[in-house]
Specification:
The complex is a heterodimer of chains A (about 70) and B (about 220). Chain A contains 1 helix and 5 strands. Chain A is mainly β. Chain A has one domain. Chain A has a 5-stranded antiparallel beta sheet, with no helix packed on it. In chain A, strand 3 and strand 4 form a beta hairpin. Chain B is built from 6 helices and 12 strands. In chain B, the strands form 2 sheets. A 7-stranded antiparallel beta sheet of chain B has the order 6-10-11-8-7-9-12. A 5-stranded antiparallel beta sheet of chain B has the order 1-4-3-2-5, covered by helices on one side. Chain B has about 220 residues and is of the alpha+beta class. The chains are: A mainly beta (about 70), B alpha+beta (about 220). Chains A and B meet through loops of A and strand 7 and strand 8 of B.
Chain lengths: ~70, ~220
């Protein structure tokens, strides 16, 4: 399931290197305090979420932390 | 100096297992009666161990360049694959460091004049490519030579182990200035895809008017 990011997040992600061609990997920090780890972001624009997070809304996201390349 | 194998040696090697994707770790008995360990690429070219780092590192995986420089067949009397179980600690260290390294872990090198790179994307509006034709720092691409092996968008997702199954049908061309800093490596298997393609990390991106496209290739 893909969740579209707004321009704020896209511009933030584009300041960081890619993990591979066309994608980055991030940890999603939620406002609830939970962390969803190792999520792919495509084209700095779409979070590629597992089905279990299909109900996630962008309003619930507090931060996106870029993972290092070794986490590929 | 790399050495081409003769047709009998090639036939012999293709019947034996690879040590890793595209290579075999071998011991070669040379015509001068010395014995050299090293790797054979594509069952075709022998590179002695003490030359691996220099040859492969210098050419940044340009197989055709290595082939062009290789000595003609006839320098090797006999060659045999060293089975993995018989390898000593560190015997493949040079090869792993140069060929098996992903771009992010590879040493910094510089582009050559008129060297062309390609970037495959599932998105026509690829955000790493700016409207002024520049490439953002930390963007991945591949060499023009490696890109020739990719005929479809699905090929690209497999060869570059892209996490999304959407075919990367949009192909951008990058012609950076000479001496642009890049890291060149090999895509490791990831995202349930084999990888194996050449990946080029543009450490500082590429300046404006160096990226054109995209052209569209078939999906499958």
């Amino acid at each position: 399931m893909k969740l579209k990011l707004n321009n704020y997040w896209t511009e933030k992600l584009l300041k960081y290197p890619e993990t591979g061609m066309g994608y980055q990997k991030v940890d999603i920090i939620l406002k609830s305090g939970r962390t969803i780890r190792n999520i792919v972001v495509l084209n700095a624009e779409y979070l590629d979420l597992p089905d279990q997070y299909k109900d996630l809304k962008m309003e619930e996201v507090k931060n996106l932390i870029i993972r290092t390349n070794k986490d590929r | 100096m790399p050495y081409k194998l003769d047709s009998d040696q090639i036939r012999e090697l293709v019947t034996q297992p690879e040590t890793g994707m595209g290579y075999q770790y071998v011991e070669a008995d040379m015509n001068d009666y010395s014995s050299l360990k090293g790797v054979v690429l594509n069952a075709e070219i022998f590179i002695p161990e003490n030359r691996i780092e220099k040859i492969i590192g210098r050419y940044s995986l340009s197989y055709s360049a290595i082939l062009h420089e290789a000595e003609r067949p006839g320098y090797i009397r006999k060659i045999r694959v060293i089975e993995k179980d018989s390898m000593h600690l560190g015997e493949t260290r040079y090869f792993e460091k140069s060929i098996g390294t992903s771009a992010s872990e590879a040493p910094l090198s510089s582009t050559e004049k008129y060297q062309i790179f390609k970037r495959f994307s599932a998105y026509k509006d690829d955000h790493r490519i700016r409207q002024d034709g520049s490439l953002l720092p930390g963007t991945y691409a591949t060499t023009e030579e490696d890109a020739r092996k990719v005929k479809t968008g699905t090929d690209a997702t497999l060869r570059y182990a892209l996490p999304c199954d959407d075919p990367a049908v949009y192909v951008f061309t990058i012609l950076p200035p000479e001496k642009t800093p890049v890291r060149i490596g090999v895509v490791k298997p990831a995202n349930n895809k084999p990888g194996g393609g050449v990946e080029v990390l543009f450490e500082n991106g590429s300046p404006k008017n160096t990226v054109t496209g995209p052209v569209t290739i078939p999906t499958t």
